[in-house]
């Protein structure tokens, strides 16, 4: 994870945020 | 998985926010149930000068399997699940700041096969015509693979990996500055409607994208 380039952080942050929503609504 | 090579900064081919809107307009309004969309961006490897496709951005909508597998036993082994959760915890710390707060409960939930496939995609890249995305760009034509058996037999590690993780459909559409990939756990045969939407939403040139 330390090697995740800055450019992918936004995609990753968005994925984690959406996942949180999916898990809580399941 | 292999790490993507260092890319030249290059021109800003797209704006992530407008790209997200395009992904959502494409997938959320589609008649079919697509699991994810990924834009593979064409870049140049600074070390070798070779062009390659690397992660541009993606949109994970999810699928019915996500809900089922979080409630039932996962197809992945306990050790595999533990590894996925460990990686997710580390990624979560990376994004939210290590030690800033206790980990969210959702991080401890099962990481489904399709979620894992999408996450791993962020580390992948395809050089000069390799893989289904690279071949689609090289040939300048759409590749549509429908059926787990066809994915399993495809001459592409990514397609075979997709099948292992439960996907049944993979589509790669070449665009001016990269490739749009769509994936689904449903079996989806060629749809002129979705192709028409792709053309209208993503038929941009580099000036419009930047």
Can you walk me through this structure?
- The complex is a heterodimer of chains A (about 25) and B (about 210).
- With about 25 residues, chain A is an all-alpha fold.
- Helices cover about 75% and strands about 0% of the residues of chain A.
- Chain A is built from 1 helix and no strands.
- Chain B is α+β, with helices and mostly antiparallel strands and about 210 residues long.
- In chain B, about 40% of the residues lie in helices and about 20% in strands.
- Chain B has 9 helices and 6 strands.
- Chain B has a 6-stranded antiparallel sheet with strand order 3-2-1-6-5-4.
- The two termini of chain B are about 30 Å apart.
- The C terminus of chain B is likely disordered.
What order do the helices and strands of chain A follow? H
Going by helix content, strand content and strand pairing, the class of chain B is alpha+beta
Radius of gyration of chain B: 17 Å
User: What's the story with the biggest beta sheet of chain A?
Assistant: none
Q: Could you state the oligomeric state of the chains shown?
A: heterodimer
**Structural class by sheet pairing and helices of chain A:** mainly alpha
Instruction: State the low-pLDDT regions of chain B, or none.
Output: 8-12, 205-210
Query: What's the helical proportion of residues of chain A?
Result: over 70%
Low-confidence stretches of chain A: none
- Which pair of protein chains has the largest interface, and what are the residue counts? A-B, 22 and 29 residues
Average pLDDT of chain A:
79
**Which outline of chain B best applies?**
globular
Largest sheet of chain B: 6 strands, antiparallel
What overall geometry of chain A do the principal axes of the alpha carbons give? rod-shaped
Helical content class of chain B: 40-55%
Tell me the fraction of residues in β-strands of chain B, as a range: 15-25%
Count of helix runs of chain B: 9
> What's the end-to-end separation of chain B, in Å?
30 Å
Number of strands of chain A: 0
Q: Note the run of SSEs of chain B as H and E.
A: HEEHHHEHEHHEEHH
Lateral strand order in the biggest sheet of chain B:
3-2-1-6-5-4
């Amino acid at each position: 994870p330390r090697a995740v380039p800055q450019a992918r952080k936004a995609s990753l942050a968005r994925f984690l945020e959406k996942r949180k929503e999916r898990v809580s609504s399941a | 998985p292999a790490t993507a090579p260092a890319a030249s900064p290059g021109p800003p081919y797209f704006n992530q926010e407008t790209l997200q809107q395009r992904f959502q307009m494409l997938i959320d309004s589609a008649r079919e149930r697509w699991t994810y969309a990924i834009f593979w961006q064409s870049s140049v490897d600074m070390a070798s000068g070779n062009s390659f496709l690397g992660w541009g951005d993606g949109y994970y909508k999810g699928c019915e399997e996500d809900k089922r597998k979080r409630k039932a036993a996962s197809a992945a082994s306990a050790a595999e699940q533990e590894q996925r959760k460990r990686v997710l915890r580390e990624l979560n710390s990376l994004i939210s700041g290590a030690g800033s707060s206790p980990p969210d409960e959702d991080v401890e939930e099962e990481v489904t096969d399709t979620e894992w496939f999408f996450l791993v995609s962020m580390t992948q890249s395809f050089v000069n015509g390799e893989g289904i995305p690279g071949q689609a760009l090289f040939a300048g034509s759409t590749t549509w693979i429908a059926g787990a058996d066809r994915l399993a037999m495809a001459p592409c590690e990514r397609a075979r990996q997709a099948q292992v993780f439960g996907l049944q459909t993979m589509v790669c559409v070449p665009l001016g500055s990269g490739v749009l990939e769509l994936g689904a756990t449903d079996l989806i045969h060629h749809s002129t409607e979705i192709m028409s939407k792709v053309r209208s939403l993503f038929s941009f040139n580099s000036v419009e994208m930047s």
